[in-house]
Amino acid sequence: MLIGLDPVLTPDLLHALAAMGHGERIALVDANYPATRGRRLIALAGVDAPRALDAVLSVLPVEAAATMQVIGDATALPPVAAAMAAVLAARGGPAPTSLERHAFYAAAEACFAVVATGERRFYGNILLTKGVVPPDAGAAR
After folding, report:
1. How many CB atoms lie within 10 A of CB 33?
2. pLDDT in tens, 68-105
3. What's the whole-model pTM score?
4. Where are the domains of the chain?
5. Which of 48, 102, 57 is nearest to 80 (CA)?
6. Catalytic residue from among 15, 22, 39, 120
7. Among 101, 124, 128, which Cα is nearest to 113's?
């Protein structure tokens, strides 16, 4: 057990987040997503997407985010996507854009890792692009 870490962050997930470089992506996907398409699969069964996102954002700097568009209605905002946008906002993250379903699949396949959550609501999928951690305010340069 470690102090100060969200218990949702498993050892495999922490390793993946720490190993990612600036600009690399990780996908958090719902229970219906074909998660075997990714390079590295990490399971968070029983954890919904907004909760998993909140845990990840507690340790990961994010510079961009994108959710999956609703098929046939690119402007629709499903409740789970709205909940994830609220988590991003509460954590000071960027407002998510959206990607057409097949574009989302292609982007997720190129991700550093895919995190399969237990989210049962449709469209509970989000891509996160890792940002950078700036130097401390008085650090020598």
Report:
1. 22
2. 999 999 999 999 999 999 999 999 999 999 999 999 99
3. 0.94
4. 11-130
5. 48
6. 22
7. 128
Question: Is the distance from CB of 45 to CB of 141 less than 8 angstroms?
Answer: no
> 28 pLDDT exceeds 70?
yes
Contact in structure between 78 and 125 (CB atoms under 8 Å): no
Distant-in-sequence, close-in-space partners of 113: CB < 8 Å, separation ≥ 6: 13, 16, 20, 26, 27, 38, 39, 40, 41, 42
CATH code of the domain occupying 11-130: 3.40.1650.10
> Which tokens in the block code for residue 84?
């994830």
Classify residue 4 as left (phi > 0), alpha (psi -120 to 50) or beta: left
Tokens of 98: 């959206």
Query: Residue 102 catalytic?
Result: no
41: closest CA among 109, 130, 139?
109
